[in-house]
Amino acid sequence: MTELAHLPASATGLGLVALLSIPAVRTFVLQTRKGAARDNFYQDRDGKSTPEAIASFSNRRPKIALLLSSVIGLATSVALSVVVTLDYAQHKFCVETWLNTASWILIQFQASLLFAIHAPVEVHDTGFWIFLSCLITGLIVSIQTYAAIGDFAHRPDVALILHAVNIGAAVVTLLSSILIPRRPEVFFRDEPVDSQWTTSVLSRGTWAWPRALMDKASKHGDLEERDIPQPDHLLRVDEVMVTWNSQNKGQTLLRDLWTVYRGRILLQWTTTIIRCVFGVIPFWVMLNLVQRLTDRGGDGGAPSRELCGLVVLLGLVSMAEQWADSWVSFYAINMLMMPMRAQLSALIYEKSLRRKNVKSAEKTKEGEEEAATSASSENHEADEETPLLQSHGDGNQATETNGTNANPSDSKKNAKKTEDQKPKDSKSEDTSFSSRQAVVNLVGIDTRRISNFMAMQFFIVASVGKLTFYSLFLVQLIGWIPFVVGILAWAVVLPINTYFSKRLIKLTAKIMSVRDKKLAIVNEALQGIRQIKFAALEGEWESRINGVRDEELGATWTMFLADVGIFGCWVVSPIFLAAASLATYALIEGELTPPVAFVSISVFKALEVTLGALPELLTGAFETLVSIRRVDSYLKGPEMEQTVSEGPDVGFEDATISWPVDEEVPDEGRFLLKNLNLTFPAGELSIITGKTGTGKSLILSALIGESDLVQGKIRTPPRPSFLERNDLNAHPGNWILPGSVAFVAQTPWLESASLRDNILFGLPFVKSRYHQVLRVCALKKDLDILTDGDKTELGANGINLSGGQKWRITLARAIYSRAEILIMDDIFSAVDAHVGRQIFEECVSGAICKGRTRILVTHHVSLVQSKAKFLVELGEEGVLHSGLASELAATGVLQEIKKHEQTPEEIQEDEATGSSTAVASEAASTVETLPNEEETGDDADSDADAKKFIQDETREKGMVKSQIYSAYIKASGGVPAWLVCVLIYVAFEAGNLARTWWVRIWTGSGDSASGLSMGNTLHPQGLIMPGLTLQDTANNPQLLVASSHARGLTFYLGVYVGLSLAAGIIGTIRFWWAFWMSIMASKTLFRETLGNVLRTPLRWLDTVPVGRILNRLTSDFEIIDQRLSMDLGMLVWHLLSVGCACIAASMVSGYVLLPASVLIVVAGVVSKKYLDGARPLKRLESTSKSPVFELFNATLNGISTLRAFEKTTAYNDKMNQKLDIWDAVTMCIWSSNRWLSFRTSMVGTVFTTIIGFVVIFTPGVDGALAGFALSFALDFTGNILWTIRSYSQLELDMNAAERVIEYSKLQTESQEGQTPPASWPTSGKIEVKDLVIGYAENLPAVLKGITFDVKSNERIGVVGRTGAGKSSLTLGLFRFLEPRSGSVYIDGVDTSSIDLYTLRSRLSIIPQDPVLFSGTIRSNLDPFNHRSDAELKTALARAHLIEAGEGAASGAATPSGGQGNSNVFKDLNSPVSESGGNFSQGQRQLLCLARAIVSRPKVMVLDEATSAVDMKTDALIQRSIREEFTTSTLIVIAHRLSTVIDFDRILVLSGGEIAEYGTPRELWEKEGGLFREMCENTGEPSLLREKIYGGK
């Protein structure tokens, strides 16, 4: 700065300080006007403070320090002004000094006002304005002091001392002003809020506030979720959604995101561009420094003031650059990435609560063309492109099939479908959401990709800015012609780069589609794991999943190859640019001077990073665009329409209804119920009955708005709004809400919560009502059996409950609710007759339901007819009969309906009277009220610790163990592969070292350089991009002096280019090798993990939520797929770079080693502190994600129930809280990362400055030698910092491998054992001897030494109360529970000696809760393609799904009466959706029965396998079972004594022991026996007696 410029600078500084004083004055004036006194209360958008926090808050110390330092600053400034004025001739800047004094007066004035301002935030903000004022004044004073010093030989005088004291006072004032805390600690949800906006400016500006969390982690060795603070309002989901909804949004998600975030993005881009402009300063400093050292020569003596000033300036500029880089990065995370992730996650979840619940499967094209082809010769694959137009059955329709073959051996014909076979108007793969998991992926993968890109997008602007400003700098440095030649050389690789980039975009979309498919099939396997294990299908499903996984890895490898191509372009293009530019410059100028050489090579190195990063960033942008389109497609998907109109009652007017579809479908292609005209009486019980598959559940779905209304009207009374409900203040006086609805779905849905919470479902605990509900729903005795009573935690969807318990809890939820209208699917199918009667009499028609409108689907017409007011019967053509029950009885129609639904015996059973004592498998409470029952039991505040059924996710502590690294290295190819990898990296680093050493030889071969005119070489408008300090510019030894000499330019340049190309090729190979090892590791670990998960004991699978397993098989494997090998490679690379830099630097100056050692120690301390906190935070993030996905999955499974209960708002709030926790942990990770990055950058900057001083103070160092030493020292600095970052990232990413390897080491069921003969079992004889079984070692035995035998082909009925051990016996037969003692023999072979696969595959079970898998009817009946079509159709006919023969008429299970309502079971290629959701519960049970008929097992277990079918079909099936399995040994767990009363023998269990065992006659004749008592208490003893004696 010239002397003439000092006066304007001081005047401008005074003006700026005056402007900065205005906020303080304004704040004080406003406070005075309001007369505001000091407040002892604090609250803002982040939260509310507590009295304790307010009492502990104090900003007094920094204010006092600020006041004192400003007084000293003002005093010294006044004294300095007086001294300068008195000795004006000797001192400069008289007027300027008085202007600075005026600035100090204003600073003093602002400091004084701090004590008058009360509000802590206003004090903090005023302190920031003082900081800016002091910064301006301090800079002006420092510059004037520097100008006044002259040189170091100048003798200090009073003025200089006053200058120094004044600058010191300015520094203290500056620091004191930004040490003022902003506010007292605030709390949200009774937990402290993140202190980013609580702490001081200095703490925020240096990212110091995460230190407290890291200290806690260091002290305790771990962190818990409770240690994580709540996010502030900028990240809180509720708040960011308010911001989103307040904006006027456009037509696409991309435009909407721009609308919401454009202000923040533009601010960030502007800051980034300014940062690029000022980035030229380090190059300018380097140019001056090298030039002056060159001019000084090797014996230049003491450094000049200019040299010292340049080194100091270099340090200050580097520090400012590092801070600016850190701020821009953190701003991208805090203001863009995290809010966007929260918003998109919330938007997708909210959409899922509103989106149509479309559940259809997809039809195969091959299936249509080859329906008659034998399955033994053809596989049938579901085509993802063709939606199934038919929907059928009255079951909850499930999601579309994931498009994978149910058979693992995909046929080549199907695998090679050509594009012309696909419909031209089919949906794009990347916007298909064919399963629930594909929807969850939008949050798990797409949203994460979008938000991660928002954290990086400014680098595109930075890269373009760098490219622009560096180019301008180069043009002024070397001229237009060399620069243009270099750009043309670089442009040669652009077409190749473009090709690979386009290919990468296409591959990204493909990978997303394949991942959706993989996740859908993994999710389906986990959901149906019990059936898979019962049928010993683990191997088949493992092959099926691995097939899709191999497809994913194949696409990933192809994408990696495209990446290698892009990396190759990255490495080669800067080499072309540098070689071409330098060669042209040397040819034109005839020489290459040291300043030009150093700076130009440094710029080329920087451009290497820029040109390499830009294609990657643009590729990331295109990938993000794919994800944005996927999310946009989902958000624009069809929503539930308002199909229900308000009316005085519940009913239909000329209504035609159908299952929901998401596109226009002709009526002929849909299952329709037409012309419905029904009115259900208010406050009464209405019954809907009919054959299986006639649309009963569809009517219920229509009443809750979950169907499509083709025409007409659906009426219900108006529902209360969410605000009108005011559930939290409900009490018995206002409990029932007119118009409100409760729904009991056909498939029970439960929360993963306690039993009590499932019943309350968000309502207040009313003790009397709660216990009444438990009693009438027959749940009292269940509480006695369950470990922790009603506090027992239920697994995912009640996995640890029996079928009957699930039903009764879902019923209890509806009965406890405030609903006036109860809509219930068949609630009697899973309970015994006596329990069913109790529920009907005490609950459905009892006092608790009096006055409530009840609409019930059931086959038990005789049971409910006495209390029914209205009755509807559905048939294959729609409504057969409807009307008042009394009128139908008078006309004889009611009797006909009962005959349609039940056999005469079942009618008598239902109509029988008698006590309802609990006796059978689902028996529960007796109906008698206990004394003072309403006053006993747990109350709402009881806080006994209940055992958790769902175990908390485990987290490791401390460093990642060496075993994890060993396991990963072994999986990725072992030690040999990694030795090759290290050798490649060594070769690459050696190539870089050789290239840079050759440059030194080349430039050192000439004589000294000619002088360089700074004014002619560099235009003052030279510009540079962000992120590049001297650390970045000095990655090569620099050119010292170059001129034409003996060997010639061509020789040196040729060797340089050759070495560069060799390094480039090796550098490209290292990426290829790292990617190859990554694929190897991913493939190996996935196979090990999947194999173990499928073969773990059933209890482990029951206690671990599906979402948790999916998280490890998806998010964790994505890191393993794409990052871990690169992390390890980067660590090896930077370690080798550090070694090379140390060797090279020590060859020049030994002084470099001392600062290097200091740097290593300081950096090590910083990195240790960071890793202490980062490790547990990363693990916490992994575990905090799982609840988000678990809740998402649960919501999608139970969406109809949630909407019917109007719980979507509550669930949305619950999701927001879980997202807040996840976001808070993630934000802590990023804050800690900034803490590390800023401090390591500062360490590097200090080291750079130290090296600069070492160089200029060391005698005998000329410009060339100094530049060489400085460049390597700076290279060492950059690499040691990147080594720390690489290791830190490796540790954090290794957490994914740690979690995956944990699952790959799970304890599995023993697969050892003998293989019996292929014909085993031949007779089916079973012997059980002294069998003792328990669920876990620490739990008591559930079967206590039972002994019995079953003869060949004998039919055994197993009965007993809940908890008697019936299910445990089944698990013992299949060896899901290993005997503690005793044994089970089948055909004389001890089952414990047989391998599990053989045992389970030779037995068969039909569970009460049937499980089907996506694919076709054929793939579900015969997954191995061993049977012909004729055999499969015969099995379907015997299961009464089709009629015998060709099946022209419809079977009992499926409707006909139109093309859309045709019997799909006639076509073996008819698709089955995920979990068989496009069939009703009854149809699924029948299909499972048909599957058993196909397999013809010698030993078969049935668990009331036909509970959900109508009575007539049930009777036919029972007859089929007796006829079809005459050569099989049958063990039937009985829910109705009438179903097993004519069996060969009855096994009565009680308390895990055999109470009785014998023929029905023997047990009947046993006076006082348990079986006789059970028969007497059913209400039908005469009927059972008649069956026992047969009347024969």
Description:
By secondary structure, this protein is of the alpha/beta class. It folds into 4 domains: 3-205, no CATH class; 237-354 and 434-635 and 961-1007 and 1022-1304, ABC transporter type 1, transmembrane domain (ABC transporter transmembrane region fold, Up-down Bundle); 644-923, 3-Layer(aba) Sandwich (Rossmann fold), CATH 3.40.50; 1326-1589, P-loop containing nucleotide triphosphate hydrolases (Rossmann fold), CATH 3.40.50. The longest helix has 52 residues, at 538-589. It is elongated, with a radius of gyration of 40 Å. Residues 650-901, 1326-1576 form the ABC transporter domain. Residues 439-604, 1040-1292 form the ABC transmembrane type-1 domain.
Please name the defining characteristics of this protein.
single chain, 1592 residues, alpha/beta, ABC transporter transmembrane region fold, Rossmann fold, six-stranded mixed β-sheet, 28 strands, elongated, ATP-binding, ABC transporter domain-containing protein, membrane, AAA+_ATPase, P-loop_NTPase
Portion of residues within helices:
55-70%
What oligomeric state best describes the polypeptide chains here?
A: single chain
Strand order of the largest sheet: 11-12-13-9-14-15
Level-2 CATH architecture of the largest domain: Up-down Bundle
